Amino acid sequence: DPQDTQNIMTERLQAIIDGSAWSFHNLNTLCWAVGSIAESQPEDVERRFLVQIIKELLDLVDKKRGKDNKAFIASNIMYIVGQHPRFLRDHWRFLKTVCNKLFEFMHEKHPGVADMAVETFLKIVRKCRHRMATAQEDNEPYISDLLRNLPAHITDLEPAQTQTFFEAVAHLIAAYPPQMRPDLLGQLLRERLPPDDHEQHVAEMRRLLHLAMTRARETLVLAHAAPDPPSPLVEEARAALGAVWEEREEELFGPAETLHSTFRMMRDELLDQVQIVGGRLGELRFDTDLDVAHAGVRLLELLKLSALLRRPPGQSIEDALPALNERLLSAATAEQREIFLTSALDDLLLDAERDDRQRAASVARRSEPSLEAFLPTRGDGLVLSASDIETYRSCPLKYKFARVFRIPAEPTLNQRFGILVHQVLERWHAGGGAGGVDEMHRLLDAGWRRGGFGDSDEERQLREKAASALGRYFERTRDEPAEPVWFERSFSFKLGPHLLRGRVDRVDRLEDGGYELIDYKTGRPRSATELREDVQLSLYAIGAREAWSMEASQQAYHYVLDDEKVRVPTEEIDPDWITETVFEVADGILGQGFEPTPSIAACSMCDYRIACPAAEK
Question: What predicted TM-score, i.e. pTM, was given to this entire model?
């Protein structure tokens, strides 16, 4: 229950404020919980709760003494704010105030505060960049004010922090129209970076070395090439540990070292993969053939490495690769050839300066077969529809089965029924509405026979519902002042690199000259509040504007069986939200993020449950 959850969080915050439960751990846990439920509640409920939490945390900042306490509370406030991009996008003044507060924190000397500020600013810009790009300050874009004050914002930042800040600025510039970007980049490049002196350079190198050393999981080895002395910073680390330098003979580095180490890594990985793929052969999976093909390619690549290790003395890897690839490909299937040619192994071998981490990442990426060739790409982007986006948002693995593997699913009775009702309405309107209700019923009878519907109790009930609903639809259409002008009208438009397309069931011209976009539904009605973040209606509104140069004044779902039309005015549709959603979904698909997101509601009706690994749990 959302209200119960809010009550629990509010009670715990009060205990922290009155001191009975005050601790860094308790506050951090509570703020993490508040951030974790972001955008899971109705917008008006979330707004009231968020404002209350932030107000009480700001009061807590005033009450607590000591820079440690104040800095910790402030960082938690910024975390919560950064987790609620929808609220920020809807309240520009608040968003600007948050950014200004982050700019103040960037000058704070207390440990960790400046890091928190630049990282939060980057997160907010990533999620709200389109809203920030449309904001105006004194009749100029917000970015102009930001670039003008940029030197003051970064003057106290360390180099790594400055880099994060500039990354955020780059994301914001990318949100502006292409014709504005050259001028904005020119303004950015004219800004001066903070002065860089020797002392600052040494401090940054010490910080980076510390960062690298503390990332070691099991062991850490520091080395330097004789006869040159070690770096003073490395020598400091050795002295602190009380260790001594050990002399080692020269070992393999460069191309030979790359070949040996990659061969060992791939050999070990192949042995593991053979067991995994072998175990999958007896399972009912749609991607088993792809697993087998991929394992075969890894064997071919292992043979290539073995041949390169035994190539004639003096022959370079670059000279040896073409002939080896040709011979190996002659034994490969068409599917294996495609996987083989898209492998990054050759690039790895030709760049012997890559470190061990990069080699491991390259091998790890091959443990899952690439689906790039099967993605619905066009140019640098994807081809997407509202249905594609909703499917991926509900479950990425379902999108993979339906849109990438294109596994056919048998339509359910309700789906077939919905298609029939759509066809009846489309054909009736295409005939000019002649014949009235009788013509509608004639089209229903003909479609019922063509659609192969039977005579079960459920099917008879559906037919009776359809006949009654068509009569009410006729009366509503006759009595409404709006004039239907288009039916099944298609649209397509570019959003960044992606092509969005769809089809609107019906477009009405309203009395005031505006237009209404209508989509038929045969399911249960949803409220206007529930539809405010509906992808389909939002996409239709943008599609009408971009593809038809039409500003629709409202959109609606017409729930035919219930004779209910639920309207959502255009001003309540957030174009920034739909843009962010499209880019988020597209990034997930292009990154091949197809992990299942199981839930009782989604899984119980999924056509691919029999093949889903999450359904087994």
Answer: 0.46
